[in-house]
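Exam revision sheet. Question 4 asks you to relate a sequence to its structure. Input first:
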Amino acid sequence: MRKQQLLILFSLFFLSNSLQAQIKGFTTIGEKGITVSVKDIIDQSKIDDAKPRKLVVQKEHELKRKPQQNPEALMISRWPEISEPQTLQTEAINATQTIHSNFLGVTLSEGSAIPPDSQGDVGPSQICVISNGRVKFYPKNTVCAAAQTTTTGPSTTALASPTVNVSLNTFFNSVRNAIGTSDPHVRYDRFTQRWFIVCINTAAASNRCLIAVSNGPTITGVASFTFYQFVFDALAGAPAAPYTGGFFDYPTLGLDANALYVGGVMFGNTGSYVGATFFVINKNSIVTGGPMVTTAFHLIGTASAGIAIPQGVQNDDPAIADGYFIGIDQAFFSRLVIHRISTPGGTPTASPAINLNVPATTFPIAQLGQGVPVTGMDALDDRLFAAMLKRNKITGLSTLWTAHNIEVNTSGVGAAGGGRNASRWYEIGVVGALPNLIQSGTLFDNAASNPISYWIPGIAMSGQGHAVIGASTAATNQFPNCGVAGRYRTDASATLQPFVSATAAASNYNQTGTPERWGDYSQTVVDPDNDMTMWTFQEYVNGTNSWGLRVIQLAAPPPATPSLASAIGCGTPSGLNRVSNVTINGNSSNNSEFFDPGADAGGPGFASRLALSSTGSVTVSNLVFVSPTQFTATITWPAAIGGSAQTFTVTNPDCQTITLNYSLPVGCVSLPVRYVSIKGKDIGRRILLSWQTSYEENNAYFEVEKKGTDGKFYPIQVVQAKGNTNGDSYEMIDAKPDGENYYRLKQVNKDFTFHYSDIVLVRIATSGKLNLYPNPAQSTVIVEAPVDFMGGQMRIISISGVTVISSSVKELFQQVNVSALKAGTYIVEIQSPKGVKQRTKLTIEKYEP
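Answer key, C-alpha cells:
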C-alpha cells in the first residue's frame, strides 16, 4: 500500500492534462514607452521627499480560499523521505555559505509604507533594493572587497551613499496616473543587461500594472528608464464584470531570454476573488522602446479551481525556450500547478494546468513574536513566493526552485494545529515532457514549546548547485529577525544546514492591523557576473515599530586546494619556448571546489570565469573545467627558465583565490641551441654584440641580422659555430651602428633549418658633440648632435661653399642619405636654436664596380 501511495503521489501528473490542447492567450499591442532620465527622477524625488509623507498601510485583499486536503498527499516533511528524524533547527555559528556583506538597505521611515514587500536583485556593479515607497541602487562589492555592513541590531541608519535613492511613486510618476504604487518587483536581466521593475498602482478599479526597463546595467544620473503600463481589463479578451472594473493585486515577476512573466490575483468589482490571470510580455518590444506587446491569459485559474497566485518563473538559461508559471492549487492543499508557456517570444500559448502532488501542506498561522501583539504578524497564506529556473552547471540539470510558508507540527508535517510556521521548499524538474518533484524539504523547529517559526521565504540555487533560503524568523521569546539556511549540492536530498540569523532585533513591533502586516515578498538571487555569490533580501524589526529591509550577501566556498596531477613535462617546442599541458586536481574541504559557469552557449556569457595565472614568464591558455576538483590548461614557458620555481594562482569566478607552488622541468632543450644570454654594448661608436649558449647540437653557424629603416632585418655578419655541445661564447662588432640598433640571431643548423633568437636593442650613447660615422661614408652617414642642438638646423656644404643638403635636427642620431653626393670633401654644420654652431669634415668615397 505504501509503495502504491508513493507511486500515486509522485507519478507527478495527470497524464490526460498533457493531451489537452494548448490555451491561446489574447495579444494586445499597446503604446510606446515613456523614457525618463534618472537625473530627472532624482531631481523630482528631492522635491517630493521634502513634502510631508503619510504612512500608507497596504490593504490585503483576502482570497478566502477554502481548499480541501489533497487525498493523495503524504504526511511527510520532506521528499525523498529518509528514515532519520529531522534535527532541531537551532541557530548555527556559521552559515552554509559565509555571510559577507550584511546591511540595512531601506527602513520604514524611508518607505513610509507597511509592509515593505521586500525586494532586491544584483547586477554587474550595483545592488537594487526596493520596498513599498522606495527605490535604491547601491554599489556592489565582491566577496574579496570590504564587506558592506551596518549594525545587525536596532538601528534606523541604512547603508550610506546609494547611487540612486528615490521614492517609488516618483520613480513611476510618468505612468502611475497620479495614484499611489504598491507591490514592487525587480529583476536584473543578464541577457539584455538591463533592470526590469514592475509594480501596480492602487486605483480602486481597473488599476494599472506598471513596468520600467533601464537602458543599461549601471544606474546613475546619465542613465534612463523607459516606462510602460497596461490595464488588465482593457486588454484583448478581458471577461465582463465582475472581472471588468476589478482590481489586479499581488503582481509577480519572472523573466527569461524572451519575455516577462507577470502573474496576478484578480478581484472583481465587488471586491470578491474571481481567479488568477497571468501576462506574457514580449521582452524585445519593451527593450526597443515599444509598443509593448502583452498576451493575457485571463482567469486561467478561477475562484474554485486551477492555479492560484501564479508566480512568473525567473530563468537565465538560454537553452530553455519555454516559459513557466507556477502556483498553489485553488481547490487543494498539497498540490502545485504549473503552466508551460510555448513560443513566449512570438505568439505565446499556455499548457493546460499540470498538477504536481507534494507532501502535505496547509495554511500558516498568524506569526507570534516577542514584542508583537497577541494577534501576531501576517503570514498571508500558503501561496508560493518567488520562483526560479536554474541550470546546475555541475550536473547540467535545469530545475525550478520555489518555497512557501505553512503551519507544521513537531515533525515538520503540514498540519493545522501544529503550532509553528515553517518554510517548505521544492526543487522541481520541469524541462521535458512531464515535470517531477526532485526533492522537497522543510525549514522548521521541532521544539515542544516556544518554537521558532520561519516565514515569507525566498530560495534560489547557484550555478554550483548550492541553494540558499532566506526568511523572516520569530518566536514568542524572540523578536522578529531574518536570516538564512542553505544546502550544498552534495548534501543529502531534502535536507538543509542549520539556520543562521543575520540580525539581532531587540525592539517591539506594533503597527496597525490584526494581525500586523508583514511581508508580502522576499527574494533570493544569484550574482549574474559569477553564478556563485548569492544574495537575499529580507524583512526584520530594525527598531521600535519599524521594519528594515536587510541585504545579505553569501560567499561561496573557496577554491579547492590545488595540486598537480603529475609533474610538468617538457611538452613541445615553440621557438625559444616550451608548451606543456597541465592537469590540476583539487582537494575539497568543507565544500571548497573549483567552479566555472561555462561558455553560456546562446547567452551573453559570464563576465567572470575560472582563471589560472602564474609567476615568471609563464603564460596560461586553453583552460578547461573538468569537474569541481579538476581542470586542465596549457602553459607556455621559456626553455631558459627550466628548473625554476614558480607559483600558480587559481581564481574562482567570484574572485576568491588559492596558490600552488610548482617547478618547471630541467633539461628541456627547445632548440638545437639554448641561449644563456644575448647582449649588446656601445664600445665607442661601435657595438659589441655577444651571446652565450649552454647547449648546442648540429649547429652550423649564426647569422647576425640588423633591422633596417624599412623595418626588415638584413644579415650583416656570419659567425661560425664552435661545435661545443655544452655551449660556448660568441661575439661580433658592428662598426657602423645607428642611434638605435635592433639585432637578432638567425641560428642555422647543419641541415639548413634555422631558428631566430629574441631581438636585442642597443642604443649609442651621445658624446655631447658633433660626430659623423661612418666617415668616410658612401651612401648614408649618421650625424650625432648634442642635446642642445635639437630643433636646430643641419647643413652639408661643398668645398665651394654651396649647401647641398639641409634639414632640421630632429634626433640625436640622425641618418642622412648622401648617395647623391660626388666623391670629395664636405663640411657638416649644425646650428642650435640659440645660434651656436659646430662644424666637422665629411669625406664621401665612391667605389666603382
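Marking note for examiners. Residues 369 and 476 are 4 Å apart (CA to CA).
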